[in-house]
Request: fold
Amino acid sequence: MGYDLDMKVWRGDASGGELVDFTVEVEEGEVVLDALHRIQATQAGDLAVRWNCKAGKCGSCSTEINGKPRLACMTRLSTFEEGETVTVTPLRAFPVVRDLVTDVSYNYKVAEKVPPFAPEPRPADGAYRMQQVDVERGQEFRKCIECFLCQTVCHVIRDHEENKPSFAGPRFFLRYAELEMHPLDTNDRRELAREQAGIGLCNITKCCTEVCPEGIKITDNAIIPMKERVADRSYDPVTWLGRKIFRRDQLPDAQVPRTPGD
Amino acid sequence: MAAPTGTQSPTRARITARSLRTDRWWVYPSFTALVLLAFVVYATYRAFVGEHYFIEPYLTPLYSPCVTTECVEGSAHLGTWVGDWWPLSPAVLILIIPLSLRLTCYYYRKAYYRSFWMSPPACAVAEPHRRYTGETRFPLILQNIHRYALYLALAYNVLLTYDAVMSFKSPEGEWGHMGLGSLILVVNAVLLGLYSLSCHSCRHIIGGRLRSFSKHPVRYRAWGMVSVLNGRHAQLAWASLVWVAFTDFYIWMVASGTWSDPRFF
Ligand code: SF4
Ligand code: SF4
Ligand code: FES
Ligand code: FES
Reply:
């Protein structure tokens, strides 16, 4: 059974834009992305919207729907009250390209700075071995679809453009945590997490966890454990003393912060 | 005026609204602020009034352990070794421990950053501050030593457990007594114990800090258990807070003679 849905869709580019009203016929069971596609097909052929899989797995269709960062392809129209207007805007933490499309390249620059996986040398038989419990630990982090909804909602950069160069953001704290919890990895990223990734800027207010479509417990399982590791390394006088006495976990040279283009 | 930042930065989609959220996002921060304020007002009043905190065999958690010479007779289980130099009520001296735990607790940080500091008030609602340095500067950088507050609090929990056990003595000092107050004190000790054990720093220390779980099977199992509790940390934070206030209120009422403590045996 079809019905008419009132929508407001932001249209414009970096030079300006506005919320434009549309009324579009939709079917029960459809999602916001369907409605956007129908607008594109019937009323505004040049509406720019990014999408790919329509299955919540590619992370392309991230937008803000009624003010909340969400995947357009996974937001059912039945989530809204009857007669409610559905407002769709581009992600508000990144530069807008056109209409609903933003330039998310900030995230790729941050990704470049995470020191890569550095496994220990292979044992004599050439085979790395990992126990199941250690494999499972990082599994949650690998569910990330890189939709960057957590990045756009994070007030550290959403509300403070000037923090971008010094902050990696929740998606990349996942990456730091995953590598730090990898038994074969030899890098020590704790100092980098503090210095370069700016984990101290996060005030664990948990919005990243609230919006993650994969349900990853970003704050509890990645950010807080990383903050605790950073505390071990930089703030805890007892572990600091232990390190001085036993001269353990010194940062190897290979971990001088890399900058993009290195 | 300085250049606009945040969602009003020049490269971002030009939308002036601070938030386009249509749900009642202000409910959580307002409610949290109200409950926290209510607790602070209540606890401050009770901590400074300095009376009706002890009646055999019950000592309210707000005054335990009572260690200055000002403590009423029988309430100083650990002795009054602090002496008489402490000018304020004995509660103030000891409340520093639970206060430092809760102030630096990862959950309460979320709660008060959102409710009081509005940083941010709710997700995707712009915060009112122009500048933001998170927890990188003094004093907030001190949040990093939360674990020391935890160690102190764990010791403090032992004392509260002791108080709960002592409440099974009758006012005459005989074992085998149990009143409603004993039950309330036991629940109080259990809730506070679970709150501390479910702490994120505790989870880290127990096993989270390991790179390899398989090399430390015992710590891995302990980590698994603490992780289960940790998933309930926020609920335990609230439950233990409310229960401490309730325990104190109950003992206040009994000690002031407003009502009497029903005795089970
Ligand atoms: S918890 Fe930290 S990283 Fe996540 S949204 Fe909040 S400030 Fe950003
Ligand atoms: S962590 Fe979640 S919200 Fe963030 S990019 Fe990955 S899937 Fe998206
Ligand atoms: S289109 Fe792939 S996640 Fe929505
Ligand atoms: S007590 Fe809440 S995180 Fe430690």
